[in-house]
Amino acid sequence: MPLRRTTVRVLAYAWAAPTTFVGLAAGAISLVTGGHAQIRRGVVEFHGGFWRWYFTRTGFAAMTLGHAIVGRDANCLDSARDHEHVHVRQVERWGPFFLPAYLLASAWAGLCGLRPYRDNPFEVEAYDEDDRRRRARS
Fold it and tell me: What DSSP assignment string belongs to the chain?
């Protein structure tokens, strides 16, 4: 059984690799501008530097790009980790089609008069998971 699980994990990382490469490039931007990196739950997380500046101005805490997450700071990553890991699993399902699908879903929501971010089905799934986890803790 461990061999099968390892094989599945390797295939998931490979399928998500094109999006992860984008995330690693985004992470490099953090590092060269004074940011930091850490590994949590099999995902490399970057925070600070450029991303502190960017997310402070946009109001977001973090963004998932494959098996890489960029965030404003370590506290934001801690609080957004469960949500962002839903996106990691989505990337593992969608592979190289995740970014185009995510952007198209946002565009479609906007064209339908909905909120392009919050009503994006990928975000709805992540926020639903956040709600389930909060209810389970109470």
Answer: -HHHHHHHHHHHHHHHHHHHHHHHHHHHHHHHTT-EEEEETTEEEEESTHHHHHHHHH---EEEETTEEEESSHHHHHHHHHHHHHHHHHHHHHGGGHHHHHHHHHHHHHHTTS-TTTTSHHHHHHHHHHHHHHHHH-
